[in-house]
């Protein structure tokens, strides 16, 4: 796993994403029968588990974790073709943070994330120069949480630069003179 803080709520939410897995062992008492009791979950059955659980079970060889559909080869090709048109918020609000965890397991994911982020970051910087009322733009609606944070930082920087250029950022005050 990547080196995020144990208490980082965004990281906790990112690893809640469910990933497809295939069980490698029979598990008693984890399935549900229609009458409210529990039953056996059989080997080779497909399950979707939260990433944090699937990753650990994969290390112990209880499951074979499969590639999350959001990082499949087809999805990666789509991201490479048109990164600005992807609705990341609809996929997951913590796309990049989850991708960092998946990148530990799938070597090509970090490069896909980097290329996509750099191209989308250029658009974020352009939009930040348009002013404060950009929330209704389709691209802004598609941003994941880290990109939305970056947009806010860019907007704050633009505002601070404008204030500085208009000499509103800092005012010099005359020091009080002692009698």
Description:
- The protein has 8 helices and 5 strands, in the order αββββαβαααααα.
- Helix 6 runs parallel beside helix 8.
- The termini are far apart.
- The mean pLDDT is 86.
- Strand 2 and strand 3 form a beta hairpin.
- By secondary structure, it is α+β, with helices and mostly antiparallel strands.
**Assembly of the depicted chains:** single chain
- Which percent bin holds the helix content? 40-55%
Low-confidence stretches: none
Q: Give the CA-based shape.
A: elongated
Strand content: 5-15%
Largest sheet: 3 strands, antiparallel
Distance between the termini: 65 Å
Element-by-element helix/strand order: HEEEEHEHHHHHH
CA radius of gyration:
23 Å
- SS-based class: alpha+beta
Q: Count of DSSP helices?
A: 8
Strand order of the largest sheet: 4-1-5
What is the average of the pLDDT values?
Answer: 86
Tally of DSSP β-strands: 5
Concise account of the structure shown:
With 179 residues, this protein is an alpha+beta fold.
Write the layout of secondary structure elements.
Blueprint: H1 9-14, E1 18-23, E2 27-32, E3 38-41, E4 46-50, H2 51-59, E5 63-65, H3 73-81, H4 88-91, H5 95-103, H6 109-128, H7 138-141, H8 145-165
Helix pairs in contact: 5-6, 6-8
């Amino acid at each position: 796993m990547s080196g995020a803080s144990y208490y980082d709520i965004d990281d906790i939410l990112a690893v809640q994403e469910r990933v497809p897995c295939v069980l490698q062992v029979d598990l008693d008492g984890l399935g549900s029968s229609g009458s409210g009791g529990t039953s056996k979950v059989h080997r080779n059955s497909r399950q979707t588990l939260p990433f944090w659980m699937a990753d650990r079970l994969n290390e112990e060889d209880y499951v074979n974790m499969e590639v999350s559909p959001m990082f499949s080869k087809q999805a990666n090709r789509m991201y490479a073709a048109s990164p600005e048109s992807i609705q990341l918020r609809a996929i997951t609000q913590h796309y990049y943070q989850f991708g960092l965890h998946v990148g530990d397991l799938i070597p090509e994911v970090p490069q896909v994330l980097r290329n996509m982020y750099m191209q989308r970051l250029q658009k974020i910087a352009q939009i930040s120069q348009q002013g404060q009322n950009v929330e209704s733009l389709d691209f802004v609606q598609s941003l994941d949480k880290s990109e939305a944070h970056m947009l806010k930082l860019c907007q704050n920087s633009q505002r601070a630069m404008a204030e500085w250029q208009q000499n509103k950022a800092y005012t010099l005050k005359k020091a009080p003179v002692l009698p």
